[in-house]
Sequence to fold (424 residues):
Amino acid sequence: MAARKRASAPQSVKEPSPKEIDKTHQIKSPVTDDPPIAPPKSGFIFKLILFFSIPYLYLIFYHYKIDLELRRSIIINAGLSLVGFFVTLRMIPVASRYVIRRNLFGYDINKRGTPQGAVKVPESLGIVVGISFLVLAIVFQYFNFTSDSNWLVEYNAALASICFMTLLGFVDDVLDVPWRVKLLLPSFAALPLLMAYAGHTTIIIPKPLIPYLGMDVLDLGWIYKLYMGLLAVFCTNSINIHAGLNGLEVGQTVVIAFAILVHNVMQIGASTDPEYKQAHAFSIYLVQPLLATSLGLLAYNWYPSSVFVGDTYTYFAGMTMAVVGILGHFSETLLIFFFPQVLNFLLSLPQLFGFIACPRHRLPRFDPQTGLLTGTNDGTLVNFFLRIFGRKTEKSLCTYLLVFQGVFCCFCFLLRYLLAGWYK
Ligand code: UD1
Ligand code: MG
Fold:
């Protein structure tokens, strides 16, 4: 997206003449004519943090008897995540000035025709989240792993994949690669994890199918690794194409990340197998920082957005969730949490595979007079919702979609509860 934006860089950001270049090198802080971004929506984020942390802390401290050692690691990780939240909150305005100076910005399409639609919104702020996340995930090893820990290899391979994905996302933001290439980027980023993965490659056959297949465990071998790669491609791209409304990219990640955390705590609380508990604890160590840093970004990206997250963020978040689903061995549950993304993907298939023309942006039509969005014929969940529920403001449509996401996460918990003992 940025390459196109660079071409249309407005006059306010003046290109330096050769003579001026020496002077600009001495400039310490990025100075542009653009006003600073709007302050974070702190009240809204504070309410969200309360909403998430009260039930979560209840589950960890009261509802389940979690081993002290494990609980200690979870709390240290939560403390680091809180630091990550504040660092993200603090660094986004700073990074915004730098990206604007480099003409990395976008116009808010759903405000076209209003004064807000002419404001340059800094793009790719997911880079701040990605860097904060990686720093604290790396530092966390100091508190949790001994040098002979078996988890170290997979943990670092997971971080390498997330880091590679963040880099490729940023490359996409800067170069605006064609979407068919975009689709492939996550398969490269998943390579560190696929190569280092030494865990089992077996799947447990659902109980109702055992009489037909004659086995209760099936070793998939290399097909399991192929499945892991495909899951990474799906999670990253499905977050990226369920987008285009202020707060939707980060909002869906926040809802799914919270559901993953609750699922992990429930599994740890209900199990007595140390290896199983470790797999879910591993997931918590990556998802807590993801949730905290994403909330820092949401403070600026919620309606009306003062920053855009870029493909840097959507790829980073999708890859992190894919990695925890793979290494935590709960990819089926993850796919149910991703149900709205699956639905959006299915609706998108005719356009993605070229049966129907696919415009650069598949967004609703905005009416500047009423401030309402109307659904278009583009195959997205956003348009589908508008066609079903009628015209909406951008904020209420995004809220509807996030509630829908939350409802599916709750449905997943209900399904697991109903099928427990019968399915696996
Ligand atoms: C994906 C979608 C595209 C959608 C875009 C929005 C597919 C195949 N691609 O493309 O249809 O339009 O995401 O992110 O489904 N923007 C807004 N408001 C927002 C967020 C983004 O107007 O709340 C606009 C801005 O101009 C921003 C641009 O979208 O600069 C970012 O688009 P980008 O993430 O590069 O699009 P894709 O991921 O390629
Ligand atoms: Mg995108």
Summary: Residues 240, 243, 311, 314 surround magnesium ion (ligand 2) (CB under 6 Å). The beta strands are 105-106, 121-122, 202-204, 217-219, 365-367, 372-374. Residues 68-101 form the longest helix (34 residues).
